[in-house]
Write a structure and sequence with these properties.
The complex is a heterodimer. Chain A is α/β, with parallel strands linked by helices. Helices cover 38% and strands 21% of the residues of chain A. In chain A, the strands form four sheets. A six-stranded mixed β-sheet of chain A has the order 5-6-7-3-8-9, with helices on both faces. In chain B, 64% of the residues lie in helices and 3% in strands. The model of chain B has no long low-confidence stretch (mean pLDDT 83). Classes of the chains: A alpha/beta, B mainly alpha. Chains A and B meet through α4, α5, α13 and α14 of A and α6 and α7 of B.
C-alpha cells in the first residue's frame, strides 16, 4: 500500500538530512504507529505520504515513495487528497469553514463531487463518527475532542483508503483521546482503512497497532516492524513494557490481556510485589503550612459556571497535580489564582494574606505561571533577553552570573544567545520557565506542561520539577497526563464541573478513576503501585535475594 | 421561522451603509445604532462563540468617546472654545472646541454603527452563504475571505492568551513600545497558523484551476479588448468627432459589448474551475417580505433626500448648532429590523 525505498530527505537551507535511506512497507488495512523524539522526522514522514513534502516545503528528496500505486512527488498533494486523508495536530487551526457541515463539504466541493453524492457522503461520514448532532454547530463552539472528530470526518469525507494523523490526541484530555482511538478502530474496520499515526502517548495505541516505526534512534536510524520487535530495541516504552523488559518476559505485552498476564506472572513469581499493599500514609495536612488557601471560589463566564464554590488548600513545598476533563475548570482555577479572571465569589489567601485585591503584577512576584502555550511568552531576540525583559518588567536587578545559573539549572545555558522560537518544543518551554522563574517565586503553576513533549523531554521536565521541589518550591500542575503526574506528584486533586470531586494521594485518587488510572495501578490495584521505580526496586531486591 | 436569505442580509448591510453615508446626523446615527443593537441581541444564539458575546456591542460603543477625545485634542478649529491646551506639544496644543468634540463624536458614531452592522451581518450569514454570493471565477478569493473570517475569533483568543501570558511576567502597557511584547508573538503565531492553513488547503485538494497556455493568452486579449471597447463606448462622443460619419447611437452598444467581452474570461474560469456546490439557499415568502420592508425603507429615505430634508445633513462647522430631527426619518429605520424579526435566532447555530 505504502512503500518507502531508500528515502532520504533534507529541508532547504539545512545540511543534515532528516532521515537517510529509509525503507518502509505498510500493508493495506494496517495501523502503523510512528514515534520518536521531537525533530526526528515524524511529521516529515507523514507529509511525504501525501506529497506535502516536498511540494509544500521544498527540499532534497532521494529514493522513491509509492502510495497506492502513485508517486506523491509526481502527482502532487491535490491528487493525493483522494488517496490520503490528513489530520493535523491542532484541529482548530486547520478549519476552513465556520460550521461543521460546511467543513465536510469543502473537500467534496473542491473535488467537484455531484450534489447527490456529496449529501450521501456527508451523511455516511457523520454517522460513522457518530457526530450527526454536531452537523449545524459552529466549529469554534466545539470541545477539543469534538473538533478532532470533525477534523477526522473532514479528512475521510473524500473516502481515501489511507488516513494519516499527526499527533491527533496531543491537545485532548484522556477521555477525548480514548474516544478518538475507539473511533479510529471502528473506522478501520468499517472502511478497511490503512492508518498511519504519529503519537507520543502510545501506551493506548499499542493495543491496536500492527506495525511500529521509531525514528531518530541513538544513531539517527529507523527501527520498524511488529510492535513487540520494535519495542525490544528502544527505551521508549510504557511502564508494563519496561517491567517485561526488565525481567526478560516474552512476548512483550502490548494488549490488555497480555499486560494482565504479565501482572499475574509478576505477582506469582515475585512475592514481595504480592505482599506490598499501598502503605502511603494519609496526608498529614495538619502538620503542613498552608501556602495557598482557596475558599468558596466561583467564576462565571456569562451564564456558564466555570468554578462553583471551590475549596482547596495547597501546602508549602507540596507537589500537587490537578486532573479533570477539558472544560472542568482547571485553567480557570489557575487564571483565577493569578488574577487573570475575576471570581464572582470566594477568597484566595497566599501565605495567609488575602490576594483578591492585588494585581496580576503583584501576584506574579510570588507565583510563576506558565500557560499552555509557552510561545505566548516568547518574543525577544535571545534567550537571555527573555530573562532581562522579565527583570525589567518587575524592575529587578540580577547579575549576569545569576541569570546564567538559572539557565544552567534548566539545561539551556548553551542557548543563551539563540533566538528562542528556533528551539524545540521542550527547549522553548524551558526558556519560558526561565523567563518566569527569574524573579524567584515561591510557587510554580504549570498548565498542561507535557503538551507536545516527547518522551525524553517529559523525563527532563520530571527531573526539573523534582529538583525544584527539593529546593522547597510549591508546585501546582494541571495535566491530563497521568503517567507523567505519578512520577512527581504527591497529591492529586480531581476537578469536574468546577468542583473538587476527589483529593488525596495519587494511588487513592486514581485507583477508581477509570480512564485516568495509570497503567501500573490498573494492573496492580491491590498493591497500589503508581510509580515504576517502586516496582523496579522490588524486582531488583528479589533478584538480589535469589542470587544470594 | 427559517433563516433569511443571505441576499436579504446583504441588501440590509448595503442599506445601512448607504444611510450612514447619507445621514451624518448624530441623532439618526444614535437611532440607527440602537436599532442595530436590538437586531444584534435579538438574533443572538445560545452558542458560546465570539459572534455571540455581548462585549462586541460595548466595544463598538467604546470607539465613540475615543474618537471624540482624539478629535477634540487634535483639531483646533471652531468658535466654541471649551478650554486651552497650553505648551507647544505638536498637534495637541491649542484651543479645544465644541465643534471638534461634536465632529469627533459623529465620526465615532459612524464607525460604531459600521462595526455593529458588520458584526450583525457576520452573525446572521454563514460563511457558506457568503461564498455562494461570490461568482465561481473568484472561488479562490471566496476561500481567502472565508479563512479571514474564521481567523478573527482565533486571533482574538490568541491575543487574549498572549496578553495574559505577558501580564504574568510583569508586562504592563505604559508606552507604544510595550505593544511589541503582544504584537510580536501574535504576528509570529498568526504566520505559523497561516502556513498551516495553506498546508491544510493543499492536503484537502484545494488548488487553482490550471489553464492551457493558449487559453491564458486568449483571456488576456479578451480583458484588453473588453477594456478598449468600454473606454470607446464611454468616450464615444469625443471619438465620434474624428469620424467622417455621425454615429452617436453607437456609444452605449460599444460600452455593453466591452463589458461582455471583459466578462467572458471570468465566465470561462467559472466553467472550468472544477468545483461543485453543496449548499443551495432557497428563497421563501419571508424573504419577499424582508426585501419589501427594506425597499420601503430605502424609498422613504430617498424621498426625504430628494426633498432635501435639512435634518439629513449635519455639520458642526462653520457654527455649532443642535442637529435637526425628523421623526418620520427615524421611523423609516424601523424597516431595517424586519429581516431580524422575521427570522429570529439563526437556525444554523
Amino acid at each position: 500500500m505504502i512503500e518507502f525505498q531508500q528515502v532520504s530527505f533534507t529541508y532547504p537551507q539545512k545540511s543534515e538530512a532528516v532521515f537517510r535511506d529509509l525503507n518502509l512497507h505498510f500493508h493495506q488495512g494496517e495501523t502503523v504507529l510512528v514515534s520518536g523524539v521531537s525533530g526526528s522526522g515524524k511529521s516529515t514522514l507523514l507529509r511525504l505520504i501525501n506529497g506535502l513534502v516536498p511540494h509544500f516545503s521544498g527540499g532534497k528528496l532521494r529514493g522513491k515513495v509509492t502510495v497506492n500505486g502513485l508517486n506523491p512527488v509526481e502527482v502532487g498533494p491535490a491528487v493525493m487528497s483522494h488517496q490520503v486523508g490528513f489530520v493535523f495536530q491542532d484541529p482548530e487551526s486547520a478549519f476552513v469553514m465556520d460550521n461543521v457541515e460546511d467543513e465536510l463539504a469543502f473537500g467534496l466541493e473542491n473535488a467537484a463531487i455531484p450534489l447527490s453524492q456529496m449529501k450521501e457522503r456527508i451523511e455516511d461520514t457523520l454517522a460513522a463518527l457518530e457526530i450527526e448532532h454536531l452537523r449545524h454547530r459552529r466549529v469554534e463552539s466545539l470541545s477539543g475532542g469534538e473538533k478532532q472528530k470533525v477534523a477526522i470526518a473532514a479528512a475521510l469525507v473524500l473516502r481515501p483508503p489511507i488516513l494519516v494523523l499527526d499527533e491527533p490526541t496531543s491537545q485532548l484530555d484522556v477521555q477525548s483521546a480514548e474516544d478518538v482511538f475507539l473511533i479510529l478502530q471502528r473506522l478501520k474496520r468499517a472502511f478497511e482503512l490503512t492508518i498511519i499515526m504519529a503519537e507520543h502517548r502510545f501506551e493506548r495505541v499499542l493495543a491496536f497497532c500492527d506495525q511500529m516505526v521509531i525514528l531518530g534512534g541513538e544513531k539517527n536510524d529507523c527501527v520498524s516492524g511488529k510492535p513487540q520487535a520494535v519495542l525490544a530495541q528502544t527505551n521508549l516504552a510504557p511502564p508494563m513494557l519496561q517491567l517485561a523488559k526488565q525481567i526478560g518476559y516474552q512476548p512483550l505485552p502490548t494488549k490488555e490481556n497480555e499486560n494482565r498476564a504479565l501482572a499475574e506472572y509478576l505477582l506469582a513469581h515475585y512475592p514481595k510485589l504480592r505482599n506490598h499493599f499501598s502503605t502511603l500514609p494519609p496526608l498529614a495536612n495538619e502538620t503542613k503550612v498552608p501556602h495557598l488557601q482557596i475558599e468558596g471560589l466561583s467564576v462565571r463566564y456569562g451564564d456558564h459556571s466555570a468554578l462553583d464554590g471551590l475549596d482547596l488548600t495547597i501546602y508549602r513545598g507540596e507537589c500537587l497535580a490537578l486532573i479533570g476533563r477539558n472544560g472542568a475548570g482547571k485553567t480557570t482555577l489557575l487564571r483565577a489564582i493569578m488574577g487573570l479572571v475575576s471570581p464572582s465569589q470566594g477568597s484566595i489567601h497566599l501565605n495567609g494574606k488575602d490576594i483578591l485585591r492585588t494585581t496580576v503584577w503583584q501576584r506574579s512576584l510570588s507565583m510563576a505561571y506558565l500557560p499552555q502555550d509557552p510561545n505566548a511568552l516568547l518574543f525577544a531576540d535571545t534567550v537571555l533577553d527573555e530573562l532581562r525583559t522579565t527583570l525589567k518588567n518587575f524592575q529587578l536587578q540580577l547579575s549576569l552570573e545569576d541569570q546564567f545559573n538559572l539557565l544552567e539549572k534548566l539545561g539551556i545555558a548553551h542557548y543563551a544567545q539563540e533566538y528562542p522560537r528556533d528551539l524545540s518544543v521542550g527547549e522553548r518551554q524551558r526558556v519560558a520557565l526561565a523567563a518566569i522563574l527569574i524573579v524567584k517565586p515561591s510557587m510554580l503553576l504549570l498548565d498542561e506542561p507535557t503538551r507536545g513533549l516527547d518522551y525524553q523531554a517529559k523525563q527532563n521536565l520530571i527531573h526539573l520539577l523534582q529538583e525544584m521541589r527539593q529546593a522547597g518550591m510549591t508546585i501546582f500542575v494541571v495535566t491530563h497526563d497521568v503517567e507523567f503526574l505519578v512520577q512527581f506528584a504527591e497529591r492529586v486533586v480531581w476537578l469536574e464541573n468546577g468542583k473538587v470531586i476527589a483529593d488525596g494521594a495519587p494511588a487513592a485518587v486514581l485507583k477508581s478513576a477509570g480512564i485516568y488510572t495509570p497503567q501500573l495501578l490498573h494492573y496492580f490495584p491491590q498493591q497500589g503501585f503508581v510509580n515504576i521505580n517502586e516496582v523496579l526496586r522490588y524486582l531488583t531486591e528479589e533478584e538480589e535475594l535469589r542470587q544470594t | 421561522m427559517q433563516r433569511m436569505h443571505s441576499l436579504i442580509w446583504l441588501v440590509w448591510l448595503g442599506l445601512v451603509l448607504w444611510i450612514i453615508s447619507l445621514a451624518r446626523n448624530p441623532f439618526y446615527l444614535v437611532v440607527l445604532w440602537i436599532w442595530i443593537a436590538i437586531i444584534n441581541v435579538y438574533t443572538r444564539s445560545t452558542e458560546q462563540t465570539i459572534w455571540n458575546s455581548a462585549w462586541t456591542l460595548w466595544a463598538s460603543l467604546g470607539i465613540v468617546p475615543m474618537s471624540a477625545v482624539f478629535n477634540l485634542l487634535t483639531t483646533h478649529f471652531g468658535d466654541h472654545v471649551l478650554f486651552n491646551i497650553p505648551g507647544k506639544i505638536p498637534l495637541v496644543s491649542g484651543i479645544a472646541t465644541g465643534e471638534a468634540l461634536v465632529y469627533g463624536l459623529t465620526n465615532g458614531l459612524v464607525l460604531s454603527v459600521i462595526i455593529n452592522a458588520f458584526w450583525t451581518f457576520n452573525r446572521n450569514v454563514p460563511i457558506r452563504s457568503l461564498l455562494r454570493l461570490i461568482p465561481r471565477a473568484f472561488y479562490s478569493l471566496a476561500i481567502i475571505s472565508s479563512i479571514a473570517v474564521t481567523f478573527i475569533p482565533i486571533t482574538i483568543r490568541q491575543y487574549q492568551q498572549i496578553q495574559e501570558a505577558q501580564a504574568v511576567r510583569g508586562h504592563r502597557m505604559n508606552s507604544a513600545r510595550d505593544f511589541l511584547a503582544i504584537i510580536m508573538p501574535l504576528l509570529t503565531s498568526s504566520l505559523e497558523r497561516a502556513f498551516q492553513l495553506a498546508e491544510v488547503l493543499t492536503a484537502r485538494g484545494f488548488h487553482h484551476p490550471t489553464f492551457p497556455t493558449q487559453s491564458l493568452l486568449g483571456q488576456r486579449w479578451s480583458y484588453f479588448a473588453g477594456l478598449v471597447l468600454i473606454f470607446l463606448g464611454w468616450q464615444w462622443k469625443w471619438v465620434n468627432q474624428f469620424l467622417p460619419l455621425s454615429a452617436f447611437w453607437l456609444g452605449k452598444p460599444l460600452f455593453f459589448l466591452g463589458l461582455i467581452v471583459f466578462c467572458i474570461p471570468f465566465w470561462r474560469i467559472g466553467k472550468i474551475s472544477g468545483q461543485s456546490r453543496y449548499y443551495a439557499e432557497a428563497w421563501h415568502t419571508q424573504d419577499w417580505v424582508g426585501l419589501f420592508s427594506l425597499l420601503i425603507t430605502a424609498i422613504g429615505i430617498i424621498s426625504f433626500s430628494f426633498h432635501n430634508d435639512p435634518s439629513l445633513s449635519y455639520s458642526p462647522y462653520p457654527s455649532l448648532t443642535l442637529p435637526l430631527f425628523n421623526p418620520w426619518i427615524g421611523f423609516c429605520f424601523t424597516g431595517l429590523s424586519m429581516p431580524a424579526f422575521l427570522q429570529g435566532s439563526p437556525k444554523y447555530d
